[in-house]
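hey so i finaly got around to running the thing on Transposase from Arsukibacterium indicum. pasting the sequence first so u can double check i didnt mess up the copy paste, my clipboard has been acting weird all day
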Amino acid sequence: MARQPRYRIPGLAQHVVQRGNNKQACFYHDDDYRVYLDRLKLYAEQYGVKIHAFILMTNHVHLLLTPEAENSVSLFIQALGRFYVQYVNKRYDRSGTLWEGRYRATLVDTDNYYLAVSRYIELNPVRALMVDHPAAYPWSSFHANGLGKPIQLWQPHQTYMALGETAEQRQKAYCELFSQDFSAKALAEIRYATQKGWVLGSERFKQQIAKQTSRPVSPRRLR
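ok and heres what it spat out for the 3d tokens, dont ask me to read them lol
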């Protein structure tokens, strides 16, 4: 089944994934990650995108973000991708495309799914058996969400802020979430929604989006 057209709703969180073409590497050296993060911050500010969670894996990137305008995400991803391809091609004397032709994105019901998606993103290197804990992976928003490390491009979502009255309380509550098992059902749900572009949320949230956009928000059930 083909992926759905992207939703363009300002003020609603989105889970965005961009992968290397044919699963090839996008980052080869620590400097590459630093350059990408620097431009991530620059273009997020330029196009009105708030970054709440991120992970830079060897051959793909996950972002949990909120756009300020309908075209914020598309302009942001285009500018970021265009710059980084030019940077990699010049630095490594290569040519051609680097990313898959189409980034993937899904709307996220922040009342019910925000923290699950944030954990899903930051647990990527753990699932890939690269580290034992997300704190051990350097290119991740866990250092801000869970450890309180200043990351300039990171902006906390209101759902995260509701975890506690102080920064220390929020960090402790967030870290405690990682002691819980991530259910196979939640993992499959997040992956399917992102892969296909369906809305990730409760039935009530899906109905609200369907009414607002006049389009389907989940696959039709076979009778």
